[in-house]
Design goal:
The protein is an alpha/beta fold. Helix content is about 40%, strand content about 20%. It has 8 helices and 12 strands. A hairpin with a 2-residue loop joins strand 8 (about 150) and strand 9. Helix 2 runs parallel beside helix 3. The mean pLDDT is about 85.
């Protein structure tokens, strides 16, 4: 069974919000509706979504501020603005903040649906460069040739799989590292037993990364997909 894509819909008009939520749910999306900007920011910061739909004019925190602060927190969830503000400078600001589109009200919901489908179908392309041997995350330095993780001149020797998995997580930082991709490249197979093995290695890496007390480095589970390395 294919998991439904999760959308955070931020809209302060309760009637319009419920109508749009119902429409997107008919289209098989899992929709969380929020009508307060401050609350929406906390939800988007602490939960994993596939897509955000942000109104601009909101109580407590406007849509532009939400987008800016999510960006500052290293959250790169794709988003569009959906708003009645049609001034050119507002549109320019929206795109400068990283919006994939700026839709003016009123609009055709089928057009919104098609845009979301097109944007979600684009996978993030990240190329692994085998020529790079040194990586950094927080105060850690990783040498993938020596398979050594260094923190404050203290070395921790890693196994091959630990080193390769951490490298991939660092390269994909703030983006989702698909479980299937990591299993294929490191374990050479994607089955029940290798999946369980990978979970053990993720637990080990989490213990290592907790030693950097100056940075809150997290390996987040992304349900049904894989993992994401972030500095929270």
């Amino acid at each position: 069974m294919q998991l439904r894509k999760k959308i955070l819909l931020v809209e302060d008009d309760p009637n319009f919000g419920m109508v749009l939520k119902a429409f997107l749910e008919i289209k098989k999306f899992n929709v969380t509706l929020c009508n307060d900007g401050g609350e929406a920011f906390q939800i988007a910061k602490n939960q994993v979504f596939d897509f955000l739909i942000l109104d601009v004019m909101l109580p407590n925190k406007d849509g532009f501020s939400i987008a800016q602060e999510l960006k500052e927190n290293g959250i790169k969830t794709p988003f569009v603005f959906l708003t009645a503000r049609i001034l050119k400078e507002d549109k320019v600001k929206g795109f400068e903040l990283g919006a994939l589109d700026y839709l003016e009200k009123p609009f055709d919901p089928d057009i919104l649906y098609l845009k979301i489908q097109a944007l979600l179908s684009k996978e993030t392309e990240i190329i692994l460069d085998d020529d790079i041997i040194n990586y950094e995350i927080g105060n850690f330095k990783l040498d993938v040739v020596k398979r050594v993780l260094v923190l404050n001149d203290i070395e921790t020797k890693l196994t091959y799989k630990e080193s390769e998995l951490l490298k991939m997580l660092i390269v994909f930082r703030d983006n989702i590292l698909l479980r299937s991709q990591a299993l294929s490249e490191i374990w050479g197979d994607d089955n029940y037993f290798t999946t369980k093995s990978m979970d053990v290695y993720i637990t080990k890496l989490r213990k290592y990364l907790k030693k950097d007390t100056e940075n809150n480095i997290e390996i987040q589970n992304v349900h049904g997909k894989g993992f994401r390395l972030v500095i929270a």
